[in-house]
Amino acid sequence: MNELKTKAQNIKLMAFDVDGVFTDGSLTFDENGKEYKTFNAKDGQGIVCVEKAGLITVIITARENGTVAHRAKNLGITEFHQGIKYKLPILDEIIRKYNLSYENVSYMGDDLPDICILEKAGLSCCPADAIDEVKTICNFVSTKNGGRGAIRELCDFILHSQGIEPLDIVKKFQKK
Taking CA atoms, which of 33, 49, 62, 121 is between 20 and 30 Å from 15? Predict the structure, then answer.
């Protein structure tokens, strides 16, 4: 656990997949093919807290969806990239842009396309219901499923590891 906290102390950028991480992985379509997503409010609060603590937040997703773009905007996600089939090059660009290294990156993914990043991230993370191939390479396996609090658990873990109380962040910004 100490090694995991040490890794978390180095995190400056938190990157996430969407389907199976921000959501439970369900794909819901109406009769016209419009796609809908359901998000967890507690996960959103975790994202807001890490952003207010100064961490960079990133979404990289293979699918293109207006609902996800709307959610990313509402949460104030620093870097939002959708329609990205191979995620590693875009994350490499983002890391260079902010003058970071992979040691400073946490990434949460749940399926095979995420492995290329999970193998490089300083803190590789997944929800409890990620596929086994992902779980075996992750440092941090949430006790929560994707879309059901996994992101919040990770956000809180990183903040606590860095000596930051999420409640203190919320109180500070409620006074403004």
Answer: 33
